Structures are given as structure tokens and as C-alpha cells.
Amino acid sequence: MLIDEDDGTGAQRREREFKVVIKLAARADLHHLGLFLQGRQTDAPQEALQVLDIVLRELPTTRYCPVGRSFYSPDLGRRQPLGEGLESWRGFYQSIRPTQMGLSLNIDMSSTAFIEPLPVIEFVTQLLNRDVSTRPLSDADRVKIKKALRGIKVEVTHRGNMRRKYRISGLTSQATRELTFPVDERGTMKSVVEYFSETYGFHIQHTQWPCLQVGNTQRPNYLPMEVCKIVEGQRYSKRLNERQITALLKVTCQRPVERERDIMQTVHHNAYDQDPYAKEFGIKISREKDCLPQVGQWNMMNKKMVNGGTVNHWFCINFSRHVQDSVARTFCYELAQMCQVSGMAFNLEPVVPPVSARPDQVEKVLKTRYYDAKNKLPGKDLDLLIVILPDNNGSLYGDLKRICETDLGLVSQCCLTKHVYKMSKQYLANVALKINVKVGGRNTVLVDALSRRIPLVSDRPTIIFGADVTHPHPGEDSSPSIAAVVASQDWPEITKYAGLVCAQAHRQELIQDLFKQWQDPVRGTVTGGMIKELLISFRRATGQKPQRIIFYRDGVSEGQFYQVLLFELDAIRKACASLEPNYQPPVTFVVVQKRHHTRLFASNHHDRNSIDRSGNILPGTVVDSKICHPTEFDFYLCSHAGIQGTSRPAHYHVLWDENNFTADALQMLTNNLCYTYARCTRSVSIVPPAYYAHLAAFRARFYMEPETSDSGSMTSGAAAGRGMGAGRSTRAPGASAAVRPLPSLKDNVKRVMFYC
């Protein structure tokens, strides 16, 4: 292959020769794909699906900027500035999926952040949010600029039509006016300023700025910032700040009728039926629209909780300099009264008066005030700490939760300054709900009108687990992943969930500490782990051992389904067997997925009997045919009422079912449970145990000590109780043992819903 290169100067064109080799990688077996779609083969032929996916992605790849399974373009919708040199682009997600209708093309609208194609000088001005020519760059400015620009492609603007592109590797430590480099083999040095003036006739203005380093780090090239422009179409993959997230959410939030319209416009614009690449492979695409046929919420104002908790001994610390002591006292009194009105036994007077403190003294003040209060209550426990926080509180919230839950054994409720000043009745009622479950109360129960029990699980003792693993943000390469497991502790109501957390290897999805076994010098073989501890806790709380286990597992991608099932189901069985011989209650293992691109729309957007006020499908809508897996047990459930934008149904995939649930029974149970979420008075979008596990895992990130939170020198362990120490777990293949254990939760904290 010969390629002509034109440098834009009019000089003779260079000709370069490349050798291209094409090899046969494999033959996709479409016969087995046909058998799979007919239900005559159990394993999906992933290679064939991947080949078809690649074919159907070829046309949009020529028109749009591909990112993962999505495609973006500035022409698909108005670019929206996100701040600090970023902008949002509209796009669409596309993937081919096997369903009961055959092969389906899943399309959904999407938006993501791109780097604005600005001159680098202008980008840096936006990044620092000031006129950069007014004063020299500080060390902090340099670090921020370097982090933001590293890895970004730029094109030069000082060479006419030749827009050569480079990738930024760093910044020079010296200013441009101080930089020199050798120009010949004799080592003759020339300054960057002189070189650009003599060679290109370009006079560098910002000589006090550093240069961009591009190319090879061993032999870096220097480019002044003012001759560089950011190349268009580069996705921003780092973490957005809060203002940028808010701006992006405003762009992505759409009413259902608007989203469906945009999806259909995208399908029409892409003209899949005329796709030349698809035709070349004999693929035809046509659209089939199948139609599937108040509202998911209630109000607790002037109503009492089912079981009010007790708060006899409490105190308050105010970390906000904008809240006066008198305001703090009034707020605490109003909150205590609301808790009483809602059905709690809540003492109106604190053990010690509210105290104001500085955020940078959180540990000292917290422990001092805790022991002051304890000294007034010899032999008694403190039930609650109320904390008033600044609206922008940085690490204060995390530090406070870590100290309370892993050091002092104290349940806390945090309130932001803006809510303290407003002191609305609705806010106080919502906070009362959270306090009640944190001190062991029960807000609501779901019961059958006749039997007064939750349907489908009241026939025999049932424990419901929720499990999730949260992974570090991109760039946090040494941080551990956090696993959390919660389990119901009451029956037949099923509303209280105890929670345990553990740290494990970076990006390890299999939960390592579900079951643990090790040799003790005195006791011999010892077993433990999160499942065993929660089963023991259930029996202690109810007086019964579970005769049925339902395990909702969040956060698992389709490619990991059976690896997770095999490892974690085995851990559940071993935990049960370790309690007593032949104890093997039947298990139902369900994966919960929220991150997918399937949306459900009403067949008639004007039919008020099939949509809620937001235009979304009604809560309780379930789809278990047509768009579901050809042979496996899965369903989509929209259990929540829409607020804004388009509701996303949860996707439930039943990987194992020894309880022999009918589809209707498991769908009804799952939907019913979504009405028992403790933190609000509405049905939620995913089943509460999975939701609680996510909250607990997110909370446990705060337990990592600041000096070790980004360290890789850690050992495996859990925050859940005795015998769950370092290096003792039975690990999955490939799992690393180098994870530092989280500090242990205090026993009284583990027993309540501290994560709410």
C-alpha cells in the first residue's frame, strides 16, 4: 500500500510504503446461533453474536465517534458546555441481543463528556477559571493543567495546512523562554523562542508559560501552548466534578415521549435497512413495535410508623459556622417532635446541650463529646448522634461516619445547613424515617389484606440477601474494591436488613468473604464469613433458621454471570453446611441489572390509563416475553413511578432457582419488596436488599484510613466480626490477597440499618 504525504508547504510529496497482511481469524457458526434462538441449545454462541455486532457497527463507525458500544457526534444534538473545557455530545448506544423475537438491535439515547476542541490557551483559561496572563502559574496550577492535558491529542496551527497531530505526555518544568535544545550533531543549542521565530516566523507571546511535551518521553518535543489546538472528538474519561455532573444530567434528562422520538429519529437517520455492510453479510433489519400495557408512592405526613424505635439518649454536634446555637437547638427540638409524632419514643431533651465545633477537629470533638455524654449515663448506651454539616463538607461526612461506626459504635444522622434553616415538615418527616430504621424501628410493612403477611414468603422462614461490589473510580488503580452483603433479620415482615462489608482485590467482582475457612492452632478448622454470620444473626433475631434463601446480586455483567454464580452459590452452600450437617435450604439466585439500554414506552403516550403524570409507564409494569432471553428466566420490571426523564426498568436474571418460583410469583415478590424501601415513601427502581447492599458498600469506602486509602499494600479481610481477619479467606482463582482489611463495624452498628 502506497500513501502520499503532503506537509502543506508545496514541497515535493513524500511517498511511504506500508505492508498490510489479512489473516483468517475464525469462522462464525451461525447454525448454533439458530439453535440457541430456537431454545435447542443452552449456551449463547458469543463469537457469532460478536461478528454480527461488528458488522452492524461498521456503518455508524464511519459517521460517528465510537466510544465503547455507543456512538457520538456534535451533529446529533446541540453541544452543551459542561465547564472547565468540557462539553457534552449526544449519541446513541447500540448492541445486538438475542431475544424471544429472534435477534434484536437495542438502541438507546446517550450523552457523554468530550473535551472541547479549543486552542490550548483557551482550554487552560477555562480550566483555571481566570485570566492566566494576569499572574504566573502556581505549582497547583501546573499540576492541574498537567493532569488535565496528559494523554490529549493536539494539532499544531503554525504550519499552514499541515495540521500534524501529537499526544501530550507532560509539561516542561521550565518556562518557554528558558528552554533550549540541540539543533545539530555538534550539540549546538538553540532556544525554543528563537527556533519558532527563525523557522516559522512565529513570535511566541506567552514565554512565561511552560511548553507541552509531546512524543517520546526519552526524546521529548517541545510545543508552545499557543501553537496547539485540541483535536475534536476526544472523550473525557476521568471523573467529572459536581457542577459538570449536574450540567450533564440536565442534558440527558428527557420525557419518555421525547426519548422515544429521538430513538426513532436516530433509527431513521441511520437507515439500517439500507446498510451496505449489513447487506453484504445478508443481514436485514426491520422494526417490530409490540405494545404492553395512584402510583407507586404515598405520604407519611400525619401517619405513624409500624414499629417506632426508641431514642432515650442522644446529643448533637454542629459543624456549620452558619448555624447559630439557638437555631441548632430549635432544629433538634423540631426533629425530636416529628419523631414522636411519627410513632417513635424520642426524648425531647439531649443528654448534653448541642455544641458547635470546627470541621478540622472532627475526631477530637466527636470523641470528647461522646465521652462527656457517656459519663452522664453510667452503664447506659447512647442511641443517636445528630450532626449538622456545612453544605459543602468535603471529607467531613466520611470521617464522621468512619469514627462513629467503626470506633465509637454510635449511630448518627447528618443534616445539611440548608435543610436546618428551612426546617420543612416534609424534610423532618423524611429524616424521621431514616432515624427510625437506624435505631431498629420499622417504617412500613407490606401485607396481604387478609393474611396480614407479605405474600409468597410467609409460608416458611425466608431470608433475603442483597449483595453488591463497588469498584474504585478510573485512575484509582491501587484502591481496593468493596463488597457488601445485607440480609433480612425479621420474618414474616422482611423489612430489617443487617449489613456487612469487606475490602477485596482491586476490581475483583467475586465476593471473597462470603465463606471463610482456616486452621486455628487451638480450635482446629474454623469457618466463618459473611453468609454464616448473617444466618446466625437471623436465627438469633427470629428464633428460626431459614428454610428458604433468596439472593439478589447486583452489579454483575452478563459475561460474568456463571463465574459469579458458581463461586458465590458454592460459598452459600458451604456456609449453610458449616452451621449443621445436611443443612441446605433451597436457594434462588437472581442478578439485578440497572445499567442497560432497554427502555419501555407506552403504546399511546396520550392514554392516561397506561402512563403516570411524568409520561412514563405505570409502576408494576413487567415484561417477560419478546425482548427477554430466548431460553433463560429473566424479566424487566419497572417498579417505580417516574419523576423526570424516562424510567429505566430493572432487569432481573434468575440464574438458579431451587425454590421453583413461577415467573408471576417471583415478579410479584420482587415488585412487592420495592415498596418496603426504608428511606422514602415511594416504590424504588431496584429491589431494596440490592439497594441496601449498594449503600453499605458505598459507605464502607469512608472506612479506609486516609493514609492508606490509595495504598496497594493491603491484605484480604472483612469488616464483619470475629474470625474474618487477614489472609484467611478461600479465594477465587486469580484473586489477590494484597488488600488491607477494613476496620470492623461495632456489633451494635451491624445489627441495624446504619447505611440508610
From TrEMBL:
User: Can you say what this protein is called?
Assistant: Argonaute 1
* Homology family: Belongs to the argonaute family. Ago subfamily.
Superkingdom classification of source: Eukaryota
User: Taking every annotated instance into account, which residue ranges of this chain make up the domain Piwi?
Assistant: 384-705
Q: List the residue ranges of the region (Disordered).
A: 713-738
Q: Where is the signal peptide?
A: none
Instruction: List, for all copies, the residue spans of the domain called PAZ.
Output: 119-232
What is any Pfam family matched here?
Answer: ArgoN
Alphabetized PANTHER family for the sequence: EUKARYOTIC TRANSLATION INITIATION FACTOR 2C
Query: Which keywords has UniProt assigned to this entry?
Result: Repressor, Ribonucleoprotein, RNA-mediated gene silencing
Quote the gene name from the UniProt entry.
AGO1_2
